[in-house]
Amino acid sequence: MVNFGYTLMCEQSGPTELVDDAVRAEEAGYDFAAISDHFSPWLAEQGHSPFAWSVLGAAAYATQHLELMTMVTCPTRRYHPAVVAQQAATIGVMSQGRFTLGVGAGENLNEHVAGAWPHRTQRHEMLAEALEIINPLLDGETVRHSGTYYEVPEAKLWDRPEEGVPVVMAVSGHDSLEVAASLSDGVVAVQPDRSLRIPDKPFYGQVAMCYGPDESECRKRALDQFRWFGLQWPVMAELPDPRAFDAASSFVTEDDVASAISCGPDLDRHLQAIRSYVDAGCTHIALVQIGGDFQHDFLDWSESTLLPALRS
């Protein structure tokens, strides 16, 4: 059985709207809500970027059954790993054990606000060392750590769920998969690739779509707000700000976006896009509706049409 989630996109909605959307997603029947954690939007046209952890706290208190997760946060530059552990433990308590911490190596777009952006190899080393701090803290241990990148003279979490907080890690290849296998409880994939699975562990994917009654309008909206989508991770991780994403995606056409993102009212087209992640073995799939002003219509359609079709 695949669990289906709704994505709270901090880049395209304000904080109060995101909490309201989480409540509506629970009512619509979604199993979980995943939230992005950015300091900046990908493009200025998206127009938002509230603090994800504040939104999570409010959403945890406002919902009853909806699982919550970060997809993903970067525990290496903007946040010290011990602070990420404290944030995750607090949301775990507030949600009564409904929170999963999703982590990744991050992007220049968000992390450079706190210092220079390291090389990819260094970033992966930093992420592995961060998990060596986060995991024992979430397990209730007192941590003393002196490493290559981080110092923790002594730290203990005083408020944490007794069952701990699951940690899943974004992976893109063999090297990161090895780290995830040893230091996380599951993986988040950036593409529907069955080889990125770890046996008997959760496997998360994410599918962007642009639902609406007019396919032409949906294609235009997807181009306006998600044209960065096709840049691929080696590029996306390095660009520093929305202006750079705008320049790098200026060559992208409406047809390019529509070939990668399902647009319009056709249910079968959206199901086909999701099916590739089901076929890859994902146990959890988070859906992204493009356009902050179109979430209510999407959630209504999810309740009446999309989720019943997915579960049948």
TrEMBL record:
Q: List the molecular function annotations (GO) for this entry.
A: oxidoreductase activity
Q: Which Gene3D superfamilies match?
A: Luciferase-like domain
Q: Which InterPro entries match?
A: F420-G6PD/mer, F420_G6P_DH-rel, Luciferase-like_dom, Luciferase-like_sf
NCBIfam families xref list: F420_G6P_family
State which residue ranges cross the membrane. none
**UniProt keyword annotations, A-Z:** Oxidoreductase
Name listed for the protein in its UniProt record: TIGR03557 family F420-dependent LLM class oxidoreductase
Q: Where in the numbering of this chain does the Luciferase-like domain appear?
A: 13-191
Alphabetical list of Pfam families matching this protein: Bac_luciferase (PF00296)
